[in-house]
C-alpha cells in the first residue's frame, strides 16, 4: 500500500495493535462489554421466518448457514469453520474478503473441509446456542459435533485461516525415523519443532500433537527412534525447538511427574520461536502481536543513522534477562515504524528513544532521560515491572475555545476538573478520529450538545481517546460513552443503549438511567489498572 490510505490504515492498525488480542480475542474497537467483547448494537431484528429449506447455498465459496440448514452442513462436512458475524460490524466487513479467499482455497483442496457464515443478529437461536457475544466469532465443528466446537485461535487473514484448517485436516506432525530424514527436516526451514517420545501414543505425545495444531506457522516432527535420541543427546522425552538464529536450539524436557501441558508448551514455543529482539516490520507484526507476551520494550531509532544502529547491541544484552516476560522490539522511525509514532505521541526527531508498554492496560512508560546502556535498560524495565515507575500519559493541548462550544472538548489535562466537577452532570464521548461508528454518531452528539448547552448542570463533552490518556480509566472501545453524575464519590455510569438524540436525552433527564439501568462503577482517585489487552485489538495477527 502507498500514500495517505496506507498511512491511515497503519495508524488504525497500531493504535489498535499497540492498543491491545488477535481478533476474536481482541476484537471490539467499536464497543465492548466488561469482558472485552463487542456489544451488539441496538438494531431491529430482521427475522426471516420464511426460510425453511435445508438447502446449502454459497456466497463467494462460503456456505450461508441458518437454523434450518446448519445440521445438514455439519453432517456433510467433517471440518466446518463457521464465522458468526454482524452485518454492521466493521471487523466482520474487513474479514469478509479474507474469509472468502480462504474458503475458495480450502474448497478446492478438500471436499470435507468447508467454511460457513451465520448472521448472528438474525439467527438468534444459533447465536444463543453457541454463546455468541462478540463479532466476529469463529468456531470449528468437527465430525458433526455441535456441542463442543473449538474456538478459532489463528490469524485473521486468508493464509492464517488456511494454515489453521490444514493443520487440523491432515497430520499435524511428520514422522522422523532416522538421522538423515531428521537432519533434512530440521535444515529445511528456519524454525522447526521435533518431539522425541518413547511412546508416540502416550499422554505426552498427545499433548505435543495438540500443541502442533495450535502453532500452525511452524513445522512439527516427531520420533521414537533410539538413534535419534542418541544423535541429539537425549535420554528422556523432550521437545526440541530448532532455529537458525539466537541460541539455535531450545529443549523442553518432559517432567516425569507432571507430564506435558499442551497450553504451556504452546506458549513456550511461541515465545522461543521469536528472535530475542524483534525488528518491527510487515513480516514480523503478526508474530509480535500474536505472541501473548504481556509487555513490550521498544527502541525507536533511525536506521539510516549509524550511531543509532549501534544502540541495538546493548538493547539486545538487556533483553536476555526478560525472555517470555518482556518482548524487545526495534522500531525504525524512518521506515515501517513511522506510522506508529503518533500513537506514542512522538515524531521522528525524538529518536533514539525508549518506551515500555503494558499490553494489559495500554500504559506507556519512558525514562526521565533516555539512557541506552544494557544496565540502564535492564534497570528501567525491572523498575516498571516492580511498579516503581509512573506511566507516561498522553495529552493534547486544549483548544482555546474548548469550553465555549456546545460540545466541550476535553483532553487528558482537563478531564479530571470537568468530569468530576461535583456541581455538574457530565456526559462524555470517548472517540477515535478514524472510527466509522464514531463518525456515524457525530451529528447526534452535536445535536445533543446544542440541546443542553444552556443547562447549567449538564455538560456534553468529547475526548479523542487515541491522543489523550487517563490515569484511572482505560477506554476499551470506540465510541465509549460515560456519564459522570454530580455529587461526591467519583461515580461513573457507562451508557450502553441506542445512540440517538432522543435516547440520550431520556438518559440525561432520568439522571443517568434507562429502563435497564447500567452498572455504577466507583472510581478510585488513584490509578486502577484494567486487566485489558488493547494493544493488539484490530491487528488481528497481521495486517
UniProtKB/TrEMBL annotation:
<keyword id="KW-0256">Endoplasmic reticulum</keyword>
<dbReference type="Pfam" id="PF00085">
    <property type="entry name" value="Thioredoxin"/>
</dbReference>
<dbReference type="InterPro" id="IPR013766">
    <property type="entry name" value="Thioredoxin_domain"/>
</dbReference>
<dbReference type="GO" id="GO:0034976">
    <property type="term" value="P:response to endoplasmic reticulum stress"/>
</dbReference>
<dbReference type="Pfam" id="PF13848">
    <property type="entry name" value="Thioredoxin_6"/>
</dbReference>
<keyword id="KW-0676">Redox-active center</keyword>
<keyword id="KW-1015">Disulfide bond</keyword>
<keyword id="KW-0413">Isomerase</keyword>
<dbReference type="GO" id="GO:0003756">
    <property type="term" value="F:protein disulfide isomerase activity"/>
</dbReference>
<comment type="similarity">
    <text>Belongs to the protein disulfide isomerase family.</text>
</comment>
<feature type="disulfide bond" description="Redox-active">
    <location>
        <begin position="89"/>
        <end position="92"/>
    </location>
</feature>
<keyword id="KW-0143">Chaperone</keyword>
<feature type="domain" description="Thioredoxin">
    <location>
        <begin position="33"/>
        <end position="170"/>
    </location>
</feature>
<dbReference type="InterPro" id="IPR017937">
    <property type="entry name" value="Thioredoxin_CS"/>
</dbReference>
<dbReference type="InterPro" id="IPR005792">
    <property type="entry name" value="Prot_disulphide_isomerase"/>
</dbReference>
<keyword id="KW-0732">Signal</keyword>
<keyword id="KW-0677">Repeat</keyword>
<dbReference type="GO" id="GO:0006457">
    <property type="term" value="P:protein folding"/>
</dbReference>
<feature type="signal peptide">
    <location>
        <begin position="1"/>
        <end position="24"/>
    </location>
</feature>
<feature type="disulfide bond" description="Redox-active">
    <location>
        <begin position="435"/>
        <end position="438"/>
    </location>
</feature>
<dbReference type="InterPro" id="IPR036249">
    <property type="entry name" value="Thioredoxin-like_sf"/>
</dbReference>
<feature type="domain" description="Thioredoxin">
    <location>
        <begin position="371"/>
        <end position="513"/>
    </location>
</feature>
<protein>
    <recommendedName>
        <fullName>protein disulfide-isomerase</fullName>
        <ecNumber>5.3.4.1</ecNumber>
    </recommendedName>
</protein>
<dbReference type="GO" id="GO:0005788">
    <property type="term" value="C:endoplasmic reticulum lumen"/>
</dbReference>
